[in-house]
What does this fold into?
Amino acid sequence: MTGGEETRAQDTRAQGTAAEVAAEAPGAGMRPQDLRADCASCFALCCVALPFARSADFAVDKDAGRPCHNLQDDFRCGIHRHLRDEGFPGCTVYDCFGAGQKVSQVTFGGHDWRSEPGTAGRMFAVFPVVRHLHELLWYLTEALTLPGAAPVREEVLRARDEIDALTRLGPEELTGLDVAEWRGRVNPLLLRVSELVRAPARAGGQGGRDRKKDRRGADLIGARLRGADLYGADLRGAYLIGADLRGADLRLADLIGADLRGADLSGADLTGSVFLTQPQLNAARGDAATRIPPGLTRPAHWSATESAPARSTGRDAQPRGRGRGGRQDAPAGRRGGRPKGRGRDEK
Ligand code: SF4
It folds into this structure.
Protein backbone atom coordinates (compact mmCIF):
# COMPACT_ATOMS: atom_id res chain seq x y z
CA MET A 1 0.00 0.00 0.00
CA THR A 2 1.43 3.40 -0.96
CA GLY A 3 1.41 6.35 1.41
CA GLY A 4 -1.40 7.96 -0.56
CA GLU A 5 -3.50 4.81 -0.54
CA GLU A 6 -2.91 4.42 3.16
CA THR A 7 -4.08 7.96 3.80
CA ARG A 8 -7.21 7.37 1.74
CA ALA A 9 -7.93 4.16 3.61
CA GLN A 10 -7.54 5.94 6.93
CA ASP A 11 -9.81 8.73 5.74
CA THR A 12 -12.50 6.18 5.10
CA ARG A 13 -12.00 3.94 8.12
CA ALA A 14 -11.82 6.74 10.65
CA GLN A 15 -15.20 8.14 9.71
CA GLY A 16 -18.09 7.51 12.02
CA THR A 17 -21.48 8.58 10.85
CA ALA A 18 -22.93 12.03 11.35
CA ALA A 19 -25.81 10.44 13.20
CA GLU A 20 -23.48 8.62 15.59
CA VAL A 21 -21.55 11.75 16.36
CA ALA A 22 -24.77 13.63 16.95
CA ALA A 23 -25.10 11.63 20.12
CA GLU A 24 -21.46 11.62 21.17
CA ALA A 25 -20.22 15.19 20.96
CA PRO A 26 -20.29 16.94 24.34
CA GLY A 27 -22.91 19.55 25.01
CA ALA A 28 -24.94 18.79 21.94
CA GLY A 29 -27.90 17.07 23.53
CA MET A 30 -28.76 15.63 20.16
CA ARG A 31 -29.77 12.08 19.43
CA PRO A 32 -28.79 10.19 16.25
CA GLN A 33 -32.36 10.15 15.00
CA ASP A 34 -32.74 13.90 15.35
CA LEU A 35 -31.18 14.51 11.94
CA ARG A 36 -33.20 11.87 10.13
CA ALA A 37 -36.79 12.20 9.00
CA ASP A 38 -39.19 10.49 11.38
CA CYS A 39 -42.46 10.68 9.48
CA ALA A 40 -44.36 8.91 12.27
CA SER A 41 -43.63 11.89 14.56
CA CYS A 42 -44.41 14.54 11.95
CA PHE A 43 -47.71 16.02 10.85
CA ALA A 44 -46.81 15.47 7.19
CA LEU A 45 -45.44 19.00 6.93
CA CYS A 46 -43.59 18.40 3.67
CA CYS A 47 -46.84 17.14 2.10
CA VAL A 48 -48.66 20.34 3.03
CA ALA A 49 -46.34 23.26 3.64
CA LEU A 50 -44.31 22.99 0.44
CA PRO A 51 -45.49 23.65 -3.11
CA PHE A 52 -44.66 21.54 -6.12
CA ALA A 53 -45.18 21.86 -9.83
CA ARG A 54 -46.43 19.29 -12.31
CA SER A 55 -43.32 17.82 -13.86
CA ALA A 56 -41.33 14.63 -14.19
CA ASP A 57 -41.12 14.70 -10.40
CA PHE A 58 -44.78 15.33 -9.59
CA ALA A 59 -47.97 14.31 -11.33
CA VAL A 60 -49.87 17.44 -10.29
CA ASP A 61 -49.47 21.06 -9.20
CA LYS A 62 -49.85 21.87 -5.52
CA ASP A 63 -49.75 25.22 -3.75
CA ALA A 64 -47.86 25.83 -0.51
CA GLY A 65 -50.07 25.28 2.53
CA ARG A 66 -52.54 23.01 0.73
CA PRO A 67 -52.52 19.31 1.64
CA CYS A 68 -51.53 16.96 -1.16
CA HIS A 69 -54.56 15.04 -2.43
CA ASN A 70 -52.78 11.78 -1.58
CA LEU A 71 -52.45 12.69 2.09
CA GLN A 72 -54.70 10.68 4.40
CA ASP A 73 -56.39 11.85 7.58
CA ASP A 74 -53.78 10.02 9.67
CA PHE A 75 -50.97 12.07 8.05
CA ARG A 76 -49.83 9.09 6.01
CA CYS A 77 -49.31 9.03 2.27
CA GLY A 78 -51.95 6.99 0.47
CA ILE A 79 -49.54 5.96 -2.30
CA HIS A 80 -46.39 5.58 -0.24
CA ARG A 81 -45.44 2.23 -1.76
CA HIS A 82 -46.07 3.35 -5.32
CA LEU A 83 -44.79 6.92 -5.40
CA ARG A 84 -42.58 6.44 -8.45
CA ASP A 85 -45.17 4.43 -10.36
CA GLU A 86 -47.82 7.05 -9.60
CA GLY A 87 -45.70 9.92 -10.92
CA PHE A 88 -44.31 11.28 -7.65
CA PRO A 89 -40.61 10.34 -7.70
CA GLY A 90 -39.85 13.79 -6.26
CA CYS A 91 -41.33 12.65 -2.97
CA THR A 92 -38.81 9.81 -2.74
CA VAL A 93 -35.94 12.27 -3.12
CA TYR A 94 -36.86 14.79 -0.48
CA ASP A 95 -35.52 14.60 3.07
CA CYS A 96 -36.22 17.07 5.88
CA PHE A 97 -33.14 16.16 7.99
CA GLY A 98 -35.47 15.69 10.95
CA ALA A 99 -37.03 19.15 10.73
CA GLY A 100 -40.55 17.74 10.41
CA GLN A 101 -40.61 16.06 13.79
CA LYS A 102 -38.78 18.99 15.40
CA VAL A 103 -41.43 21.46 14.29
CA SER A 104 -44.31 19.07 15.04
CA GLN A 105 -43.19 17.88 18.45
CA VAL A 106 -40.91 20.61 19.80
CA THR A 107 -41.86 23.94 18.22
CA PHE A 108 -45.59 23.20 18.37
CA GLY A 109 -45.54 20.72 21.25
CA GLY A 110 -47.41 17.94 19.44
CA HIS A 111 -50.38 20.10 18.40
CA ASP A 112 -51.24 19.34 14.79
CA TRP A 113 -52.60 21.66 12.13
CA ARG A 114 -55.72 19.57 11.51
CA SER A 115 -57.08 19.68 15.06
CA GLU A 116 -55.76 23.21 15.64
CA PRO A 117 -56.11 24.98 12.28
CA GLY A 118 -55.09 28.26 13.87
CA THR A 119 -51.51 26.99 14.08
CA ALA A 120 -51.30 25.92 10.44
CA GLY A 121 -49.97 29.14 8.92
CA ARG A 122 -47.19 29.55 11.45
CA MET A 123 -46.31 25.86 11.36
CA PHE A 124 -45.97 25.86 7.59
CA ALA A 125 -43.86 29.03 7.69
CA VAL A 126 -41.53 27.64 10.34
CA PHE A 127 -40.94 24.27 8.68
CA PRO A 128 -38.65 25.39 5.82
CA VAL A 129 -36.67 27.56 8.24
CA VAL A 130 -35.99 24.65 10.56
CA ARG A 131 -35.27 22.42 7.59
CA HIS A 132 -32.48 24.77 6.50
CA LEU A 133 -31.09 24.84 10.05
CA HIS A 134 -31.19 21.06 10.31
CA GLU A 135 -29.33 20.75 7.05
CA LEU A 136 -26.59 22.95 8.51
CA LEU A 137 -26.60 20.72 11.59
CA TRP A 138 -26.09 17.71 9.35
CA TYR A 139 -22.99 19.25 7.76
CA LEU A 140 -21.55 20.43 11.05
CA THR A 141 -22.18 17.07 12.66
CA GLU A 142 -20.49 15.31 9.77
CA ALA A 143 -17.53 17.66 10.16
CA LEU A 144 -17.09 16.33 13.68
CA THR A 145 -16.59 12.84 12.27
CA LEU A 146 -13.72 13.85 10.01
CA PRO A 147 -10.24 13.34 11.52
CA GLY A 148 -8.73 15.86 9.13
CA ALA A 149 -10.96 18.58 10.56
CA ALA A 150 -9.53 18.21 14.06
CA PRO A 151 -7.84 21.67 13.99
CA VAL A 152 -11.24 23.37 13.83
CA ARG A 153 -13.21 20.91 15.95
CA GLU A 154 -13.91 23.41 18.74
CA GLU A 155 -15.21 25.97 16.26
CA VAL A 156 -17.42 23.35 14.66
CA LEU A 157 -18.80 22.29 18.03
CA ARG A 158 -19.62 25.88 18.92
CA ALA A 159 -21.32 26.48 15.59
CA ARG A 160 -23.33 23.29 15.90
CA ASP A 161 -24.53 24.14 19.38
CA GLU A 162 -25.42 27.65 18.23
CA ILE A 163 -27.49 26.36 15.29
CA ASP A 164 -29.08 23.69 17.45
CA ALA A 165 -30.18 26.36 19.91
CA LEU A 166 -31.81 28.31 17.07
CA THR A 167 -33.94 25.30 16.15
CA ARG A 168 -35.47 25.43 19.63
CA LEU A 169 -36.71 29.00 19.36
CA GLY A 170 -40.42 29.75 19.35
CA PRO A 171 -42.50 30.02 16.16
CA GLU A 172 -42.34 33.83 15.94
CA GLU A 173 -38.58 33.98 16.40
CA LEU A 174 -38.02 31.20 13.90
CA THR A 175 -40.20 32.83 11.29
CA GLY A 176 -38.18 36.02 11.56
CA LEU A 177 -34.82 34.28 11.38
CA ASP A 178 -32.48 35.27 8.55
CA VAL A 179 -31.44 31.80 7.38
CA ALA A 180 -29.19 33.18 4.65
CA GLU A 181 -27.22 35.10 7.26
CA TRP A 182 -26.69 31.96 9.32
CA ARG A 183 -25.67 30.01 6.24
CA GLY A 184 -23.21 32.78 5.49
CA ARG A 185 -21.75 32.47 8.96
CA VAL A 186 -21.37 28.71 8.82
CA ASN A 187 -20.18 28.40 5.23
CA PRO A 188 -16.58 29.64 5.77
CA LEU A 189 -16.18 27.05 8.50
CA LEU A 190 -17.47 24.28 6.25
CA LEU A 191 -15.09 25.46 3.55
CA ARG A 192 -12.20 25.30 5.99
CA VAL A 193 -13.24 21.79 7.00
CA SER A 194 -13.35 20.76 3.37
CA GLU A 195 -9.89 22.14 2.67
CA LEU A 196 -8.40 20.44 5.70
CA VAL A 197 -9.98 17.08 4.93
CA ARG A 198 -9.06 17.16 1.24
CA ALA A 199 -5.53 18.45 1.85
CA PRO A 200 -3.82 15.10 1.09
CA ALA A 201 -5.52 14.91 -2.29
CA ARG A 202 -4.95 18.56 -3.15
CA ALA A 203 -1.25 18.32 -2.36
CA GLY A 204 -0.93 15.69 -5.10
CA GLY A 205 -1.89 18.12 -7.87
CA GLN A 206 0.35 20.28 -10.00
CA GLY A 207 1.84 23.10 -7.97
CA GLY A 208 0.03 21.77 -4.92
CA ARG A 209 -3.37 22.21 -6.55
CA ASP A 210 -4.98 20.09 -9.21
CA ARG A 211 -6.87 22.59 -11.35
CA LYS A 212 -8.79 19.85 -13.16
CA LYS A 213 -10.38 18.88 -9.86
CA ASP A 214 -11.35 22.39 -8.84
CA ARG A 215 -14.87 22.31 -10.25
CA ARG A 216 -16.74 24.38 -7.72
CA GLY A 217 -20.08 25.46 -9.15
CA ALA A 218 -19.09 24.03 -12.54
CA ASP A 219 -21.62 23.29 -15.25
CA LEU A 220 -21.12 19.56 -15.71
CA ILE A 221 -24.63 18.80 -16.88
CA GLY A 222 -24.53 15.58 -18.87
CA ALA A 223 -20.73 15.44 -18.56
CA ARG A 224 -19.02 12.23 -19.58
CA LEU A 225 -17.08 11.44 -16.45
CA ARG A 226 -17.12 7.68 -16.62
CA GLY A 227 -14.19 6.30 -14.64
CA ALA A 228 -12.95 9.85 -13.90
CA ASP A 229 -10.39 10.43 -11.18
CA LEU A 230 -12.24 12.91 -8.96
CA TYR A 231 -10.47 11.91 -5.79
CA GLY A 232 -10.48 14.96 -3.52
CA ALA A 233 -12.21 17.13 -6.13
CA ASP A 234 -13.98 20.33 -5.20
CA LEU A 235 -17.48 19.84 -6.62
CA ARG A 236 -19.25 22.26 -4.29
CA GLY A 237 -22.47 23.35 -5.94
CA ALA A 238 -21.48 21.72 -9.24
CA TYR A 239 -24.27 20.97 -11.70
CA LEU A 240 -23.90 17.26 -12.36
CA ILE A 241 -27.45 16.71 -13.61
CA GLY A 242 -27.50 13.58 -15.78
CA ALA A 243 -23.72 13.25 -15.66
CA ASP A 244 -22.18 9.88 -16.42
CA LEU A 245 -20.17 9.18 -13.28
CA ARG A 246 -20.10 5.41 -13.65
CA GLY A 247 -17.05 4.01 -11.94
CA ALA A 248 -15.79 7.48 -10.99
CA ASP A 249 -13.47 7.87 -8.02
CA LEU A 250 -15.23 10.43 -5.82
CA ARG A 251 -13.48 9.58 -2.59
CA LEU A 252 -12.76 12.70 -0.53
CA ALA A 253 -14.63 14.82 -3.07
CA ASP A 254 -16.53 17.77 -1.60
CA LEU A 255 -20.08 17.38 -2.89
CA ILE A 256 -21.90 19.94 -0.80
CA GLY A 257 -24.83 21.32 -2.75
CA ALA A 258 -23.84 19.42 -5.91
CA ASP A 259 -26.88 18.75 -8.08
CA LEU A 260 -26.81 15.02 -8.79
CA ARG A 261 -30.29 14.68 -10.25
CA GLY A 262 -30.26 11.79 -12.71
CA ALA A 263 -26.47 11.41 -12.46
CA ASP A 264 -25.35 7.81 -12.96
CA LEU A 265 -23.24 6.73 -10.01
CA SER A 266 -23.19 3.04 -10.91
CA GLY A 267 -19.93 1.56 -9.70
CA ALA A 268 -18.72 4.94 -8.41
CA ASP A 269 -16.80 5.14 -5.15
CA LEU A 270 -18.20 7.83 -2.82
CA THR A 271 -16.65 6.52 0.38
CA GLY A 272 -15.05 9.36 2.28
CA SER A 273 -16.77 12.01 0.15
CA VAL A 274 -17.49 15.19 2.08
CA PHE A 275 -20.92 16.67 2.83
CA LEU A 276 -22.91 14.26 0.67
CA THR A 277 -26.54 14.03 1.79
CA GLN A 278 -29.30 11.49 1.44
CA PRO A 279 -31.43 13.68 -0.89
CA GLN A 280 -28.47 13.93 -3.28
CA LEU A 281 -28.13 10.15 -3.37
CA ASN A 282 -31.88 9.75 -3.73
CA ALA A 283 -31.86 12.05 -6.75
CA ALA A 284 -29.12 10.10 -8.51
CA ARG A 285 -28.98 6.65 -10.04
CA GLY A 286 -26.73 3.87 -8.84
CA ASP A 287 -26.28 0.16 -8.61
CA ALA A 288 -25.10 -2.57 -6.28
CA ALA A 289 -21.47 -1.64 -6.96
CA THR A 290 -21.83 2.01 -5.91
CA ARG A 291 -19.91 2.60 -2.72
CA ILE A 292 -21.52 5.15 -0.40
CA PRO A 293 -20.36 6.77 2.84
CA PRO A 294 -21.39 5.31 6.19
CA GLY A 295 -24.54 6.85 7.59
CA LEU A 296 -26.26 7.14 4.22
CA THR A 297 -28.74 4.62 2.84
CA ARG A 298 -28.67 3.01 -0.58
CA PRO A 299 -31.84 4.30 -2.31
CA ALA A 300 -34.45 1.62 -2.93
CA HIS A 301 -34.85 2.61 -6.57
CA TRP A 302 -31.22 1.93 -7.44
CA SER A 303 -30.39 -1.15 -9.45
CA ALA A 304 -29.87 -4.22 -7.28
CA THR A 305 -27.31 -5.60 -9.69
CA GLU A 306 -23.93 -4.39 -10.87
CA SER A 307 -23.54 -2.69 -14.23
CA ALA A 308 -20.67 -3.46 -16.55
CA PRO A 309 -17.21 -2.51 -15.21
CA ALA A 310 -16.44 1.15 -15.57
CA ARG A 311 -14.04 2.13 -18.30
CA SER A 312 -11.75 5.11 -17.76
CA THR A 313 -12.09 7.88 -20.29
CA GLY A 314 -8.55 8.98 -19.64
CA ARG A 315 -9.85 12.47 -19.08
CA ASP A 316 -10.65 14.19 -15.84
CA ALA A 317 -13.80 16.20 -15.46
CA GLN A 318 -14.19 17.17 -19.10
CA PRO A 319 -17.67 18.64 -19.27
CA ARG A 320 -20.07 18.14 -22.13
CA GLY A 321 -22.27 20.76 -20.56
CA ARG A 322 -24.48 23.28 -22.22
CA GLY A 323 -21.96 26.03 -21.84
CA ARG A 324 -24.27 28.07 -19.72
CA GLY A 325 -21.53 29.04 -17.27
CA GLY A 326 -21.67 31.97 -14.96
CA ARG A 327 -23.86 30.39 -12.35
CA GLN A 328 -22.83 31.04 -8.84
CA ASP A 329 -22.21 28.80 -5.96
CA ALA A 330 -24.12 29.81 -2.84
CA PRO A 331 -23.35 29.58 0.85
CA ALA A 332 -23.24 26.01 2.10
CA GLY A 333 -23.01 24.78 -1.47
CA ARG A 334 -26.08 26.11 -3.16
CA ARG A 335 -28.99 28.15 -1.98
CA GLY A 336 -31.05 25.59 -0.18
CA GLY A 337 -28.01 23.33 -0.16
CA ARG A 338 -29.86 20.40 -1.65
CA PRO A 339 -30.71 18.99 -5.00
CA LYS A 340 -34.03 20.36 -6.14
CA GLY A 341 -35.29 16.88 -6.86
CA ARG A 342 -38.59 17.59 -5.21
CA GLY A 343 -39.07 20.65 -7.33
CA ARG A 344 -39.90 22.71 -4.30
CA ASP A 345 -38.37 26.01 -3.50
CA GLU A 346 -38.43 26.58 0.20
CA LYS A 347 -38.47 30.22 0.97
S1 SF4 B 1 -47.66 11.97 -2.84
FE1 SF4 B 1 -45.87 12.96 -1.86
S2 SF4 B 1 -46.64 14.94 -1.11
FE2 SF4 B 1 -48.42 13.62 -1.53
S3 SF4 B 1 -48.92 12.64 0.43
FE3 SF4 B 1 -47.56 11.23 -0.72
S4 SF4 B 1 -45.46 11.74 -0.02
FE4 SF4 B 1 -46.82 13.45 0.60
Remarks:
- Confidence is low (pLDDT under 50) at residues 1-19, 21-27, 312-347.
- DSSP finds nine helices and no strands in the chain.
- Residues 47, 68, 70-71, 77, 79, 88, 91 surround iron/sulfur cluster (CB under 6 Å).
